[in-house]
Amino acid sequence: MPVKFGKVLIPQPRSKFVKIRCPDCGNEQVTFSHAAMVVRCLVCGRVLAQPTGGKAKFAGHIVKILE
After folding, report:
1. Does residue 41 have a known ligand-binding role?
2. Parent domain of 39
């Protein structure tokens, strides 16, 4: 007898990569939505993402959510 397998539900991750625009210089930078370290702008050095233990708190404008 062949073994029947039911549907396997695989949960999708809640974390994504996001593109953030720096409010000071306008530089766009890709970072992780659940960043564990402070993310600074590569051009001017302003803090763009502050870790909170879960999702990061973003100081810049989120331009796009990448998948």
Report:
1. yes
2. 17-66
CATH number of the domain to which 61 belongs: 2.20.25.100
**Residues 55, 59, 62, 66, CA torsion sign:** negative
Q: Tell whether 64 is in a known binding site.
A: no
Q: Is 21 annotated as a binding residue?
A: no
Question: What pLDDT shows up at residue 4?
Answer: 67
Is position 7 within any domain? no
What pLDDT is stored for residue 5 in this prediction?
65
Digit-coded pLDDT (tens) for 6-25 = 676 888 888 999 999 999 99
**In what helix (H) or strand (E) does residue 32 lie, and over which residues does it extend?**
strand 28-32
Annotated binding residue 22: yes
